[in-house]
């Protein structure tokens, strides 16, 4: 048993899962000793009325609060610093992040920077992170990134034009609040993209060289939940509360699968430069690259890919192992087609001349994910996968 020679780390924040759980935030803030809270969100979330229950719960507990609703996509560092200044200037001691992955990532990092007196250097050197002064409560309004329960926050460094993953235990929420009601009216396109991000987390963690028994538990459940519920949530999520509930679980389980000592790999490595060069949302970029990476990796772990096919409901009885493994790719392609997501790099405006820059990015910033891939990779292999995706 390979786990005997490894240390498996399991760190999950306190998590509340319930329909209308948003109404509990005020009481949770009281437990944390909140004297003043800052709701961190974006204008779309505010306009959709998704902060209302949280605001009401804070008023019921007589907790004063402010709202920072200037969170752009991809959490640029300049916006992280703007938010941190609001926290410090108004002496907020609790941050409540309400939104998608970028909003929650920005809230995480702003709280951490504020705890360190506004010092942005902690984003570039996590060894400088020493304390948590500002408490955090996170409520996702999408079901994909799982940022609400993870210790990673992705931000954009405008100076180097790259996405940075800032990992530290103090990034974890004091409390994660999973309220499926916040996702009931999520538009189909965002439902599709974020759901595919969760599926990518599960598949990558399950087939990574770092896969382990604990990660498998989360990954298998994620793959099954997405396969059984994403289409329903996409088709008419407002009429399918059970599908919305299950997709919210899938998002949190999905991120816990690589973070319980497993790992993501080159699906996510490709998604970062693709997102910037083609202006794609993270989940859409992951969805586009997932089947091509799976096809390349099949021979590296055919048993695991065959099991993915089973989890996704593919008929595999009587097939040889390689054929069963190939069915996992078929299943993912069917899902992508049903969700009307782009199937090729060409569809999103990428050409062969863009490939060297994408590979350069992966090899400069994401070699740790290349190393966790179930099949050995060099530059030519990365180029081959991208050319196949054209």
Description:
With 390 residues, the chain is α/β, with parallel strands linked by helices. The chain has helices at residues 25-31, 43-47, 52-60, 77-89, 101-115, 188-207, 213-236, 241-259, 266-277, 282-297, 302-311, 321-338, 355-365, 367-371, 379-389; strands spanning 14-17, 37-40, 65-68, 94-99, 135-140, 152-157, 162-167, 175-178. A six-stranded parallel beta sheet has the order 1-8-5-4-2-3, sandwiched between helices. It has a two-stranded antiparallel sheet with strand order 6-7. Helix 9 crosses helix 13 (355-365). The radius of gyration is 20 Å and the shape is globular.
In a few lines, what is going on in this structure?
With 390 residues, the protein is an alpha/beta fold. The protein has 15 helices and 8 strands.
Primary descriptors:
390 residues, alpha/beta, Rossmann fold, Dehydroquinate synthase-like, alpha domain, 6-stranded parallel beta sheet, two-stranded antiparallel sheet, 15 helices, 10% strand
Total number of helices:
15
Oligomer: single chain
Overall geometry = globular
- Cα-atom Rg, whole angstroms? 20 Å
> What proportion of the residues is helical, as a percent range?
40-55%
Low-confidence segments, given as residue ranges, are: none
CATH topology of the largest domain: the name is Dehydroquinate synthase-like, alpha domain
């Amino acid at each position: 048993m390979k786990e005997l020679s490894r240390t498996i780390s399991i760190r999950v924040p306190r998590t509340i899962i319930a329909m209308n759980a948003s109404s509990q935030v005020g009481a949770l803030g009281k437990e944390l000793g909140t004297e003043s809270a800052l709701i961190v969100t974006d204008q779309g979330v505010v306009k959709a009325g998704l902060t209302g229950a949280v605001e009401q719960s804070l008023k019921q507990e007589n907790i004063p609060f402010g709202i920072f609703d200037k969170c752009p996509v991809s959490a640029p560092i300049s916006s992280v610093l703007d938010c941190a200044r609001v926290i410090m200037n108004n002496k907020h001691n609790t941050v409540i992040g309400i939104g998608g992955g970028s909003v929650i990532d920005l809230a995480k990092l702003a709280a951490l920077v504020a705890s360190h007196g506004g010092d942005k250097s902690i984003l570039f050197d996590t060894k400088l992170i020493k304390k948590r002064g500002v408490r955090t409560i996170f409520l996702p309004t999408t079901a994909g990134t799982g940022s609400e329960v993870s210790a990673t926050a992705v931000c954009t460094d405008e100076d180097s034009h790259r996405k940075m993953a800032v990992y530290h235990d103090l990034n974890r929420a004091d409390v994660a609040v999973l309220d499926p009601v916040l996702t009931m009216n999520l538009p189909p396109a965002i439902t599709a993209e974020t759901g595919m991000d969760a599926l990518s987390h599960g598949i990558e963690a399950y087939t990574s060289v770092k896969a382990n028994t604990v990660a498998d538990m989360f990954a298998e459940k994620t793959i099954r939940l997405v396969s059984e519920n994403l289409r329903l949530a996409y088709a008419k999520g407002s009429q399918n509360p059970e599908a919305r509930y299950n997709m919210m679980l899938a998002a949190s389980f999905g991120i816990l699968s690589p973070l319980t000592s497993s790992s993501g790999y080159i699906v996510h490595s490709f998604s970062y430069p693709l997102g910037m060069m083609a202006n794609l949302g993270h989940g859409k970029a992951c969805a586009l690259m997932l089947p091509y990476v799976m096809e390349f990796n099949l021979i590296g772990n055919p048993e695991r890919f065959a099991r993915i096919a089973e989890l996704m409901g593919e008929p595999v009885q009587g097939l040889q192992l390689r054929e069963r493994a190939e069915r996992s790719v078929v299943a993912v392609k069917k899902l992508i087609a049903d969700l009307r997501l782009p199937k090729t790099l060409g569809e999103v405006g990428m050409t062969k001349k863009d490939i060297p820059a994408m590979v350069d990015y992966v090899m400069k910033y994401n070699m740790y994910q290349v190393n966790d891939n179930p099949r050995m990779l060099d530059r030519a292999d990365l180029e081959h996968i991208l050319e196949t995706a054209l």
